[in-house]
Amino acid sequence: MGIISIMKGGTMKIRLLVSVILIIPLVITCSKVQTVKKVLPAKSGSLAIIDVYNAAGERVSGTQIANVGGILEFVAKGKDASGRAVDINPTWSCDDPEAVEITPEIGPKVKIKILKECLCTVTAEAGDVKAEISIGTQ
After folding, report:
1. Fold adopted by 49-137
2. 98 contacts 117 by C-beta, under 8 angstroms
3. Which residue of 9, 83, 101, 114 is surrounded by the most CB atoms within 10 Å?
4. Could you give the CA distance from residue 122 to residue 136 in angstroms, rounded to a whole number?
5. Cα distance between residue 123 and residue 60, in whole Å
6. Which residues does 85 contact at the CB level (< 8 Å), separation at least 6?
7. CB burial readout 39-67, b (16+ within 10 A) else e
8. Calpha distance 45→82 (Å, rounded)
9. Largest Cα span, the chain
10. Mean of pLDDT over the chain
11. Nearest Cα to 75, choosing from 64, 90, 61, 85?
12. Could you please report the per-residue DSSP string of the chain?
């Protein structure tokens, strides 16, 4: 782009203003959009361990004993790798389903009724993490 100036004495002077405009063509291609899911390693805050507590709030260890017809109450609590609490909703099961009745079968708190003489293993499982407790009769 040029600008012409007339100076005193009738002399013409041409001043050039240089401007550079870069035009970059932008090409947008419309195609199918895909959602990509990336599997991340376990991080702080993800479930690492399940602890089971009895009705008295004591962490369960050893075999829990009850008479036939008796009811045991348990609470499952999740923790991350740093020991911080993690909310869980575990599924409960028994290796001898005829021996006990678990109510409810899903949730952190359960009641387990002993239906017959037994020594069995009850499992609380959330995702890939599980805890097992032993239940037996006298």
Report:
1. Immunoglobulin-like (2.60.40)
2. no
3. 114
4. 10
5. 12
6. 77, 78, 79
7. eeeeeeeebbebebeeeeeeebeeebebe
8. 8
9. 124
10. 80
11. 90
12. -EEEEE-GGG-EEEEEPP--------------------PPPP-TTS--EEEEEETTSPBP-SEEEE-TT-EEEEEEEEE-TTS-EE----EEEESSTTTEEEESSBSSEEEEEE-SS-EEEEEEEETTEEEEEEEEE-
Whether pTM > 0.70 for this model: the answer is no
Phi and psi of 92, rounded to 5°? -105, 140
Q: Which two tokens stand for residue 46?
A: 């993800």
Residues recorded for the chain? 138
Residues 11-58: tens digit of each pLDDT = 555 454 444 444 444 343 334 434 444 444 445 579 999 999 999 999
Kindly list the domain boundaries of the chain, sorted by start residue.
49-137
- Candidates 129, 114, 133, 125; CA nearest to 58 is 133
Which residues lie closer than 8 Å to 3 by C-beta, 6 or more apart?
14, 15, 16, 17
Q: What is the CA radius of gyration of the chain?
A: 36
For residue 12, give both structure tokens.
Answer: 């013409």
Asked if 5 and 12 touch (Cβ cutoff 8 Å), the reply is: yes
